[in-house]
Amino acid sequence: MSESFQSAYQEEESRLYEVIVEIDRQLERLRGIPVYTGHDFTEQVLEAGREEKRQALAKSLPEPYFGRLDFQESGTAAKKPLYIGKIGFDKEDAGDHPMVIDWRAPVASLFYSFTGGTDPASFEAPEGIIEGLVYLKRNVVIRKQILERVSDTYNRESGGPAVSDEFLVYRLGENKDNRLRDIVSTIQAEQDKIIRAAKNTALIIQGVAGSGKTTVALHRLAYLLYQYKEQVTAEKMIIFAPNLMFLDYISDVLPELGVGDIQQRTFGDWAAELLDIQLASDDHAQTLHQWFETEPGQGTPDIDDNVSGRYKGSLRLMGIIRRCVESIETEALPDGDFSPWDGAVLKQETIAEWFYQEYKPYPLAKRKERLLARLHRWVEMELKKSPSAAVMKERKKKAAQREKAYGNRWPKFEPVSLYKQLFGAVKATGSWFEELSALIPSEVLAATRKDLKKNVVREEDLPALLYFHCLLNDITGEQRFDHIVIDEAQDFSPFQVAVLDLFVRGHSFTILGDLSQGIHAYRGVHAWEEMSSLFKEEETAYFALTRSYRSTMEIIEFANGILEKGVSSDLLAVPVFRSGDTVRLIPYDSAKSRTRDLERAMEALIAKEYRTVAILTRTLREAQELHEQFITAWPMLNLIDGSKGTYQGGYSVLPVYLSKGLEFDAVVVADADRAHYAEKAWDAKLMYVGCTRALHELWLLHNEPLPTYIRTETSEITASGWPWSKVRLCY
User: Fold this and answer.
1) Fewer beta carbons within 10 angstroms: which end of the chain, N or C?
2) Dihedral, CA atoms, 293, 295, 300, 302, nearest 10 degrees?
3) Within 13 Å of residue 177, how many CA atoms lie on the same side as its CB?
4) Is 520 helix (H, G, I), strand (E, B) or coil?
5) What is the pLDDT of residues 523-545, one digit of tens each?
6) Torsion, Cα of 386, 391, 396, 401 (10° steps)
7) Going by DSSP bridges, is the β-strand pair 263-265/237-240 parallel, antiparallel, or unpaired?
8) 691, 661 Cβ separation under 8 angstroms
9) Taking Cα atoms as reference points, which of 726, 682, 678 lies closest to residue 705?
10) Model pTM score
11) In this predicted structure, what is the pLDDT of residue 713?
12) Are 638 and 670 within 8 A, CB to CB?
């Protein structure tokens, strides 16, 4: 151990002790103040502030900070050590800078954006650009109040190296558990730019597998709440994720960052609740079965813009619905005058003026509601002109009957009803039906009509139903969001995003995904222009995250080969310099040897004490069969079949199409041969998804022949302790 390192360690140990003592002192004082439970508003506000500070200090105590930056602002004589943590705090008799600075504060951005060199560095503060010199950048690892590691990545005075990946590689090398974790201590410069981007922008983030897209988006939410605390609230933010298991997987990140109350939903659940409808209970399973549970050798079905999911998520259908509502509006007014009783007449011209002019600013359902209410008030005024109480009573009875009959002559401005009319599931009230229905692809029209006649609504129907709802009704303040995050956005449709834009203020989106992982291409986008075209140029921004932090160099280079040869994609990952074992290609020649080799593979990987290991199959049926075979030997083996809302971690077997968004220490692809993965770009994307789930080790079992997009450069080695003597390695 060098003298300089020992000195740095002792310095940081002394500083840590000072900080912990201060946190303990403040916590003790705050906990000693009785909790106020009265009704005085001022005291309630003060108590809320004290409780917030209690929770923040308690959360900071195990790991008060993770980084240090020594910075000398231009025009000042001395450099200041700035300590960066998840939550900022100071002594109660605050000095000229806090004991720990919140990672979201403007000056803390230097810790992430500074990439070495002797030139001045700068950050944007409320008062303008602040410039100065960085003298030291230091990472520290503190666990349970114990200083475990000190790593200087830049030291101006010692002439040391520029910022390196040494600390990042150290953190990436840690084994995975069953939850996504925050990356506050290792945010990279390109990630920090996204996190700190302006609020009222539709950010579109293309990120390769393992680039930290999801984590960056969650940190962005925490940053927006800090930076725009007067404009946004956690309750008015929402994360749309692909399924409940994925939401469970990411559920710990925001609490770790001290952020709560952000809604986390699937689009289907949120939309169905808003529309107050029930989706078909087997819809999700049926869709996955249709597109992924093909027989070996058949590959995935063909896709074009007229398949049901792509069409119903298109702006083509959005335009038809808009025309539908416009047509209904022109034909909505019932013919003829309204007469509540003989001798009293409200002219159709007057009713038309109310509907088409005075109430024009209102959506159709609200216009109808206001018009019928006004008509009722007119009736009440006319009733007052009755010559006697008896006549008034008779007229009132007749008017009620005629008002009800007149109201029934109006169209029902209700989303499901109009959607059924558009697809011919019920008789249309108007002449618009035939012209607009003819624009819908015949197969989509027939299948949807069949569903709707049985009152079956599928998730792919929701964008259209939501758009009908928005055109017919007001969007209330409670329904509007301050910011929306869409994860796995390559599986979202343009129509979904266009409708969500009606529910968010200022086009404030974080839209993230990876086109190379677009395995749900039957409903998702094929190019990001399908999303960006929804916004004006000044309302959107595009970022590309090409650096992958998940997998070893060997795994990333192997996966890049799949993209190059199988997808013809240039969206390739740049690996962090973290080397590991070579990707294994292991042939088998029978079902019996396949089972044996899978058993041996699991035994070998479990023996290495990996926390998470997954066997990925091509279909759910194959995953179920393997789970049944192996559950006796490994009772802790989890079957992930898409039906559960929680992710258990540990050892799992699951179909490859359910693995997207997850990551494991080691992955075994059970059948990497051409019988299971055809020579199609879609199948290559499935293989790419499976391979990029692995952090440290990737093994592929196969029966010849392999798909041509899998690299086959090999060398023979003897694997001691294995049931086979020759193992294929891919370089």
Assistant:
1) N
2) -110
3) 6
4) coil
5) 999 999 999 999 999 999 999 99
6) -130
7) parallel
8) no
9) 678
10) 0.87
11) 63
12) no
Does pLDDT of 178 surpass 60? no
H-helix or E-strand containing 58?
helix 41-60
Closest C-alpha to 623, from 650, 642, 648, 603 = 642
Question: 710: which 2 tokens?
Answer: 């899998």
Please choose, from the candidates 550, 542, 474, 482, the residue with its C-alpha nearest in 3D space to the C-alpha of residue 512: 542
Please report where in the chains the tokens 């940081």 appear, as a residue.
12
Are the C-beta atoms of residues 419 and 465 closer than 8 Å to each other? Answer: yes
Q: Are 425 and 453 within 8 A, CB to CB?
A: yes
- Residue-wise pLDDT tens digits, 28-42: 999 999 998 899 999
Per the CB < 8 A criterion, the answer to whether 723 and 600 are in contact is yes
**If 0-12 CB within 10 Å is exposed, 13-18 middle and 19+ buried, where does residue 345 land?**
middle
Report how far apart the first and last C-alpha atoms of the chain are (Å, whole number).
37
Amino acid at 539: E
pLDDT tens, position by position, 90-136 = 887 766 668 999 999 999 999 988 888 888 999 988 889 999 999 99
705 preceded by a cis bond (ω within 30 of 0): yes
Strand duo 483-486 + 237-240: pairing = parallel
Query: Closest by alpha carbon to 342, among 395, 392, 387?
Result: 395
SS3 at position 357? helix
Query: What pLDDT was estimated at residue 487?
Result: 94
- Cβ atoms of 264 and 512 closer than 8 Å: no
Burial of 206 (0-12, 13-18, 19+ CB in 10 A): buried
